[in-house]
Design goal:
The complex is a heterodimer of chains A (439) and B (99).
Chain A: E1 3-9, E2 13-20, H1 22-37, H2 52-59, H3 61-83, E3 93-98, E4 102-109, E5 113-115, H4 133-147, E6 149-152, E7 162-172, E8 178-190, E9 214-220, E10 236-250, H5 256-262, H6 268-303, E11 305-307, H7 310-330, H8 335-341, H9 346-373, H10 380-392, H11 398-405, H12 408-432
Antiparallel strand pairs in A: 1-2, 2-4, 3-4, 5-11, 6-10, 7-8, 7-10, 9-10
Chain B: H1 7-10, E1 11-14, H2 18-27, E2 29-34, H3 40-51, E3 55-63, E4 66-70, E5 73-78, E6 81-88
The chains are: A alpha+beta (439), B alpha+beta (99).
Amino acid sequence: MLKLQHEAMEDRQTRLIVTVDDARVDKAMKDTAKRLGKQVQISGFRKGKVPYRILLSHLGEDYVFNEALDPLSQAVYAEALEESDLQPYGPGALTDVERNPLRLTFIVPLVPTVELGDYRDLRIDYDPPEIDEKDVADAIEEMRKEQGFLEPLERPAEYGDVATVDIHGHFTDDEGAEQELAHRHEYELDLLEDGKDPVPGFAKHLIGLEAEAETHFEVEIAEDNEEIIEELRGKTLHFEVKVHGIYTRDLPELDDEFAESVSTAGSMDELREQVREELLAHAKSHTDNDYLDAIFGQLLDGIATVEFPPQMVDDDVEDLINNYGARLQQQGLSLDDYLRLNQMTKDDLRADFRETAVRRIERGLLLAEIADAELVSVDDTDLDDEIRTRLLSFGEGAAYMESVLNSPEYRRMLSNEIRTDRAIERLMAIAKGEAPSLE
Amino acid sequence: MPKPLHLFDVVIRPVVTEKSQILQDEQNVYVFEVDMRANKPQIKAAVEEIFDVDVRKVRTAVVPPKRGRRGRSEYIRKKAWKKAYVTVEPGDSIDLFGV
């Protein structure tokens, strides 16, 4: 019979103190001695025939005790958990051992608890992203530039031309020290009247120069110019520039032919529509992410409470590190090499990942709980649909991948993914005030 | 004339082997290596004095030397020694230095 005592601690951990009676300890030690006796050679005895007391004095009582402690504490721990009504998240740690009588202290991490609170009352304004004509036009102009090529010019540079230049910049900082600013080689610079690259007012110094010209000039940055990083404001920047060549950008016409060459669209109108959709999708995922951040921020700040043991974070950090290591491995770099290159230790990396892990756990637990509360379910048809969509991206390997994707493990994983996604959708709908009530 | 044997020179060491353990456990017999010159009364007196027990009986045996040969020459690998089986009165026991 075990005597139990437990004290709750912070962070979903509990201190479990178990008192083990002497007879049991004695038996464990004797069993251990028997096992050890088979391994040690003591003169005068055959292996395994050494009496207990001889072994004790030979090996030392402490040694035998420590050897016995491991299996004993494990057995005791299992029984103690059985007897108490604790729900452990993972293996407990033996933190303290007292002898005569034997008292073992375990720290047991408990399963996380999630208290959702009035999460259904959460309301956050959602700003749907908007894409206007200018964004679309800019994006298409960018595509046009990529398609165009440079035609050398035999005349001095004018606005609208492109110059390839070497730039050396420096300035004197507040302490009076000379600071290197920009150092570019054969840089393609668009000479625009209101160009801000590399600093506003730069381009005008190049106007009128011919290929192979060299020049140096100063640009003053206004104190209140907000487009420039703070330490450069109000400074005089010195530039030395060598012009390699002056070019004109030979841009393709914005016609249906262009549309066909850069995309699957058949006409300019279609291209505009496609670009708009892409931009919108991109902006939406960005907005949604921010929105979700805000939701979780508010949920965790007073509405819902999530408690989990620190071991969970540690486990997740290890997971993250392993994933990271696997990704590095794909690039042909082992984790150890990576650490050496960056002069980090594994502990530094752990510290870096810690925050991510905590966030992942909090969100994961919340979402799982919300999925339950909101009766989110995933059935086999959903899974089959999703698997079919995923198979499409494999092309020729689809036949083989189908068996992989249909394995029970993958289906379970996928079902969790879908469930989480739906919980996220649901959560966003709630915050927007669009969620239908459950009844 | 050799020096007379002192009481505390009689018993040299306890013999700790599987067999001696069995004798100890089952028959209350303790086994010692003793000085070659010691006789039974001396051994009895020594054990009684050292371990503070009553000795019922002492039996002795001379363990033959272990001899080795290298060609024609013979040598002694391990000298002969005297072993004493000391039966202790029931109820008494000897704590052999925790051995």
